[in-house]
Design goal:
Blueprint lengths: L2 E6 L7 H14 L3 E5 L3 H6 L2 E4 L26 H13 L4 E6 L1 H14 L3 E5 L15 H22 L2 E6 L6 H9 L4 E3 L7 H13 L5 E6 L7 H11 L5 E5 L11 H19 L5 E6 L2 E6 H6 L6 H10 L2
Parallel strand pairs: 1-2, 1-4, 4-5, 5-10, 6-8, 6-9, 7-8
Antiparallel strand pairs: 2-3, 10-11
Helix pairs in contact: 1-9, 5-6, 6-11, 7-8
The structure holds 6-O-phosphono-beta-D-fructofuranose.
């Protein structure tokens, strides 16, 4: 391997830049070239690439977003699009790819590998923490801190007005952000897709808290939760408790921005280097992850298909603390 191409794809996540920096510098360390591909797979198709060296990634370890930009490429889903991408790979003499992204990005890489046998290693970058084969994805810790800080602020106003706040957080089909930020911000209840919830149970929890003298509450709701969404849930609770002064806050894309936390910067740095080292050892079709604080490589198909379980102990913690 003489030249590695690197791209960021799918939803951005804080720490992607730190991962890019690590890939580029590891390439230099091992005396190979690196080239950045802009806009995810779009850049591969449009031949939008830039040679990178250690200094071109200076001052980005602390920056949110991705300087390479990212996209969810429709054209890469087509055979013609992937053929164009492959032609550009050959033209740019790229021998292998590092794909920084989530499961959609890995699915694309997997198909590309099957069709054209291009070696690649995935680096998990998504705030959702929904990728099998790693304890943490890049961006998750930062997003948790952002959410916790935001809910702390909501708590101030909820307390002043004796209100019930329903806060929707991201996570796509996974409840990791909701469960952990809910515990950290002292939520009265946390609704996640992995658990079967009901409006009745939610009301019981709010009633219990009232009986112990609580006058305001925070309920954290994962966007993938299955009771019809945060507004519907708020409406149903209001029907049963017209006396509650309810407000809804959807945190939205604020969760994807911001300077990455120390944890995400270190994780991204480790995984970026691991990806380059893996490719140099002729590993391919794998994702670099971290398990029990050790670098591990997981077959990409497992990373895509399997799911991390929600930790039952964390649910117990949330329940005990919401007494
Ligand atoms: O996967 C990251 C994520 O932020 C999810 O939590 C969310 O469901 C989705 O991306 C939002 O996507 P978009 O930025 O395309 O609206």
């Amino acid at each position: 391997i003489k030249k590695i191409g690197v791209l960021t794809s799918g939803g951005d996540a804080p720490g992607m830049n730190a991962a890019l920096r690590a890939v580029v510098r590891a390439c230099k360390y091992y005396n190979i070239s690196s080239i950045g591909i802009r806009q995810g797979y779009e850049g591969l198709i449009q031949n939008d690439m830039i040679d990178l060296g250690p200094r071109s990634v200076k001052n980005i370890i602390n920056q949110g977003g991705t300087i390479l930009k990212t996209a969810r490429s429709e054209e890469f889903r087509t055979k013609e699009g992937r053929q164009k991408a492959y032609d550009n790979l050959l033209q740019n003499e790229i021998d292998a790819l590092v794909i920084i992204g989530g499961d959609g990005s890995f699915t694309g890489a997997n198909i590309f590998h099957q069709e054209f046998n291009v070696p690649f290693i995935g680096v998990p970058g998504t705030i959702d923490n929904d990728i099998f084969g790693t304890d943490f994805t890049i961006g998750y810790d930062t997003a948790l801190n952002t959410v916790t800080e935001a809910i702390d602020k909501l708590r101030d106003t909820a307390t002043s007005h004796d209100r019930v706040f329903f806060v929707e957080v991201m996570g796509r089909d996974a409840g990791f952000i909701a469960l952990n930020s809910g515990i950290a911000s002292g939520a009265q209840d946390i609704l996640i897709p992995e658990q079967k919830d009901s409006v009745e149970e939610l009301c019981e929890s709010l009633e219990r808290s009232e009986e112990t003298g609580k006058k305001s509450s925070i309920v954290v709701i994962a966007e993938g939760e299955q009771l019809g969404g945060v507004y519907e849930i708020a409406k149903e609770v209001k029907k049963r408790h017209p006396e509650y002064d309810i407000r809804v806050t959807v945190l939205g894309h604020i969760q994807r921005g911001g300077s990455p936390s120390c944890h995400d910067r270190v994780l991204a740095s480790r995984l970026g280097i691991a990806a380059v080292e893996g490719l140099l050892e002729n590993k391919t079709n794998l994702m670099a992850g971290i398990r029990s604080n050790k670098i591990v490589f997981t077959p990409i198909e497992e990373a895509i298909k399997k799911h991390n379980e929600i930790d039952a102990e964390l649910i117990k913690v949330a329940n005990i603390l919401a007494i």
